[in-house]
């Protein structure tokens, strides 16, 4: 078994209203120095050795991310 992480983030050119709301809230609670926040999603998948890198990329591209407005990255975590 392996643990795979898929991080999905809005593309840089896409407006991120949730991130902007966080930036405004930081100012209201007295935190300064943060100029931008981008909010994304993290998926953790437990997979066995039969799942290929190509299949993981297909899952990320077709199911987990909206590739019109989001970028994704698939990373395999070290097994401990």
UniProtKB/TrEMBL annotation:
Described purpose of this protein according to its UniProt entry: Part of the phosphoribosylformylglycinamidine synthase complex involved in the purines biosynthetic pathway. Catalyzes the ATP-dependent conversion of formylglycinamide ribonucleotide (FGAR) and glutamine to yield formylglycinamidine ribonucleotide (FGAM) and glutamate. The FGAM synthase complex is composed of three subunits. PurQ produces an ammonia molecule by converting glutamine to glutamate. PurL transfers the ammonia molecule to FGAR to form FGAM in an ATP-dependent manner.
Top EC class of this enzyme: ligase
Organism of this sequence: Corynebacterium macginleyi
Source organism superkingdom: Bacteria
InterPro entries reported in the protein's UniProt record: PurS, PurS-like_sf
Protein name: Phosphoribosylformylglycinamidine synthase subunit PurS
Molecular functions (GO terms): ATP binding; phosphoribosylformylglycinamidine synthase activity
Pathway: Purine metabolism; IMP biosynthesis via de novo pathway; 5-amino-1-(5-phospho-D-ribosyl)imidazole from N(2)-formyl-N(1)-(5-phospho-D-ribosyl)glycinamide: step 1/2
Subunit structure: Part of the FGAM synthase complex composed of 1 PurL, 1 PurQ and 2 PurS subunits.
EC numbers on record: 6.3.5.3
Recorded family membership: Belongs to the PurS family.
GO annotation, cellular component aspect: cytoplasm
Subcellular location, record wording: Cytoplasm
Gene Ontology BP term (one): 'de novo' IMP biosynthetic process
UniProt gene name: purS
Keywords carried by this UniProt record: ATP-binding, Cytoplasm, Ligase, Nucleotide-binding, Purine biosynthesis
């Amino acid at each position: 078994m392996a643990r795979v992480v898929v991080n999905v983030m809005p593309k840089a050119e896409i407006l991120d209203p949730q991130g902007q709301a966080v930036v405004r809230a930081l100012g209201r609670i007295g935190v300064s120095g943060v100029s931008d926040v981008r909010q994304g999603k993290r998926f953790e998948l437990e997979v066995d050795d039969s799942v290929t890198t190509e299949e993981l990329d297909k899952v990320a591209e077709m199911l987990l991310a909206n590739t019109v407005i989001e970028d994704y990255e698939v990373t395999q975590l070290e097994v401990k």
